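Table S2 (text version). Query chain:
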Amino acid sequence: MKGLEKTKNTETYNSLAKEFKRTKSDLAFTKLYHKMRPSLRNFIKNIVKDHDVTEDLLARTFQKIYEKIDTYDESFAITTWAYTIGKRECLRWIKRERNPRISLSYLSEFGSEVTSDDDSTRVSRNGLTFEEAEYKGEEQFIEEDNLLQTQYTTAVDTIQSLKPMYRDILVDILFNKMKYKDVAFKYDEELQDIKLKYESATPLTQKKLKSEYEAIYKKALQRVKNRVRRGKSLVASELEEAFPGMAMAMDI
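Corresponding structure-token output:
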């Protein structure tokens, strides 16, 4: 223990990183791990605000550091490189779990393929996954990440520029995660009126109103679906124009 404490106090982050990169030894990685863990853990925890998630993302970050140490550029501080990896892990978790406005499932609405396995959620365009892109080098990974973010931003901007009849419904369905039936009741006044009349009627009158109620509901629901389909088509067309050569098929 005394030897470990001495190492932690006298060796720098960069010297430990260089030693691990050169030797690939478990002992060198353990030294680097113990040196960096406290500050890297605090960095991640300040972003995600969750103890259990912090531990999981910290483990993922160190796994990436272990696997990708050969891509580390020694002219830069190891902390900058490690914190960048940690931040990306945090952002992936936020996109996947915490914020529906930037969720990975949202990207799938606009042509990005999203698949899950026991270890991770993968996002790909034209067969290239985030994990594969990382191993191609930091610069190429950043370019791929930026492209996805640009596509997302373009999609959001396009939605905001649509006519209200398309924009408002798309925002409720895609961003607010409302159900189609709830959106139908929200925007169709005729459906609202018949629902109010139905709920305040006597059982006998409700029986007479039922078929009318169902017909109006079916029409309102189909109208919502049609507008979502049309709105997505408009967004897809804009993405295809902005990013030619990339598949942007829209499916509901």
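Notes on Table S2: Residues 1-9, 98-137, 247-252 have pLDDT under 50 and may be disordered. The first helix runs from residue 2 to 10.
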